[in-house]
Amino acid sequence: MEQGYLIDTNVIIDNFGNKLPEKAKTPLYSIELIASVVTKIEVLGWINATKEQLQPPYDFMEIVSRLPISEAVVEKTIAIRQSKKIALGDAIIAATALVHDLVVISRNTSDFKSIQGLKVSDPYSL
């Protein structure tokens, strides 16, 4: 079975903010990307963004497969938060990746480094 990838919010924002290096964009557009529903909320919940600014991320989120917050993800999120100091969104993303055996693509590798069994790839290090 081919490895799956869960894209973190910061990578999508960096991509649409033209901050993601070109060498990182090619791999992102050559693999099937999956996002947590939390990522959709974070990406499209920008304050003071215009409709024009949000349209490309909206279009992107429509073509990316999205995973819901299942009961298994809820339970894994609780376990992560009980053992680590981590933001709720990051805990849900980590739990989603663990439950579905996905690699998290994120520039914030430090947010996830202490979560046992979680695989993380930094697009800036490609």
Characterization of this structure:
The protein is of the alpha/beta class and 126 residues long. It has one domain (4-125): 3-Layer(aba) Sandwich (Rossmann fold), CATH 3.40.50. Helix content is 52%, strand content 14%. It is built from seven helices and five strands; from the N terminus they run E-H-H-E-H-H-E-H-H-E-H-E. It has helices spanning 9-16, 22-28, 37-44, 51-63, 71-83, 88-100, 109-112, and strands at residues 4-7, 33-36, 65-67, 102-105, 119-121. A five-stranded parallel beta sheet has the order 3-2-1-4-5, with helices on both faces. It is globular, with a radius of gyration of 14 Å. The two termini are 23 Å apart. The mean pLDDT is 90.
What are the main properties of this structure?
single chain; 126 residues; alpha/beta; Rossmann fold; 7 helices; 5 strands; globular
Architecture blueprint of SSEs:
Layout: E1 4-7, H1 9-16, H2 22-28, E2 33-36, H3 37-44, H4 51-63, E3 65-67, H5 71-83, H6 88-100, E4 102-105, H7 109-112, E5 119-121
Helix pairs in contact: 1-3, 5-6
